[in-house]
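For the sake of clarity, the format in which proteins appear in this thesis is described at this point. Each number in the token line that follows is a code from a learned vocabulary of backbone shapes. One such record is shown here in full, so that the layout can be seen directly:
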Amino acid sequence: MPVLEKIVISDFRNIEFQEIEFSPNVNCISGNNGEGKTNLLDAIYYLSMTKSAFAASDRYVLRHGATEYALSGSYMMENGLKSRFSLRVNQKGDKLVRRDDKPYQKISEHIGVLPVVMVSPSDVAMVSESGEERRRFVNAVLSQMSGEYMSCMQQYNRLLMQRNRMLKEMDPDRQLLEVIDMRMAALAGPVHRMRKKFIEDLRPVVAEYYRMLSGDSETVDIRYQTELDRAPLDELLRESFQKDRILKHTTEGVHRDDFIFTMNGHPIRRYGSQGQQKSFLVSLKFAQYEIMKQNYGFAPMLLLDDVFDKLDMSRISNLLQMVASNDFGQIFITDSNKVRMSGIVDRLTKDRAYFETAGGVFTRQ
């Protein structure tokens, strides 16, 4: 499994310049809120996914007053050899990603090379907000595990933009629309199939992690909601053409899929407390971790940002048992409560490193 040995960060969020060496096992980052703990985890995530875990646009992670930001990571790869990955982004959004100083021909080639799972407070958006957040989660997981999935989604989204532009015209070319519909349907088929299998694989693992975390107090599940279970996409697009013309956008397709999270048969967003929702989201991410580990044959990197917040001590204890008993790889944990974190981690392993942050500066303790 890839292990991050050292990271170099320049002008990323509130971090002006830092060079940090890590433990191959557990790394603990403490400090007050707003000092840079989450920014460090986001930089690590960025090196894996070539985008922020939080910001919709690259320009929002550029440190104020800087003209570009750069990240570089030295990794021990699963084959026992070292590799260096770097990226540089200017204020116009131009991005260059390299492996061992050799640029990728396509940035998408890098996705999945450094598998990562991140658990953060922002995950609550998957419960509280629209299906777009849940689709983003599924797309991020499957894109790491399948180049075919990522390619299909990229091509599908380009065709979707073209179709939506045509629907805004007074008299769209029906023949060209039919060609686009057929091409979108050919891409939607594999996306639908892979999403369906992923959710089938994910459901029992999420339920089991939630059971261990909550102590059998509730039952959780996930349901894949898609119109493609009813008919192929080209048929759905023909049926919805008049509605699409009126609304001037495409109302059917995998870009409208949703993933419904339930607790005891009811939507979690309505019936789950904050602690129950947090427990579900942690279980979801740990299930993602387990499935990715099975897919790769080794453990992804695990980023736990403020993971103990809103979990009572019994659930924290259960979470630690899960971590200690499942052959986890390199882990990064942030917590504003250093005493709580050290008390938890010291019982977990002796191979750990502690860092304190203030104003984007990280000091090893």
In short: Residues 174-214 form the longest helix (41 residues). The two ends are 26 Å apart (CA to CA). The chain has eleven helices and 15 strands.
